[in-house]
Structure formats: structure tokens, C-alpha cells
Amino acid sequence: MKKVDCIGLFCPMPLYMTRKAVEEAEKGEIIEVLADDPAAKKDIPEWAKRMGHEVLEVEERDGIYRIVIRKG
Description:
Blueprint: E1 2-6, H1 13-24, E2 30-35, H2 38-50, E3 54-61, E4 64-70
Parallel strand pairs: 1-2
Antiparallel strand pairs: 2-4, 3-4
């Protein structure tokens, strides 16, 4: 599983870093994104679905968003 740590970064960096990690991943690979920018909770899953990837999980714990994507 690839991990993308975007804590402390704000739009558009979490989406940019997620996009780069997904591009480098193999089909079917899992990418876990951690972010504390509230926009990431909405922007990253919407982008992933639009690009044909599967959003496996979106959760928030103590102000940290964890988004898990499977590359399509």
C-alpha cells in the first residue's frame, strides 16, 4: 500500500500529490491518503471516481482525513 502524507498542506497540494501517487501506482494498487485540509475530504474522492478509481474508504479522526483509493 502506498501512503501519501498531506498533513499540513492545503489545496491544491493534497490532490496533486494524490494524483501523482496514483499515476505511479500499478492497476489495483491501494493508495492511502492522509490530509487535514477539509477540502481534501471532498476533492480527492470526487477526482478518484471521475478518473475511474475505486474509493474504498473516507474517514475522519481528530481532524485528519484518511482516504483509501484502489487504482482502476
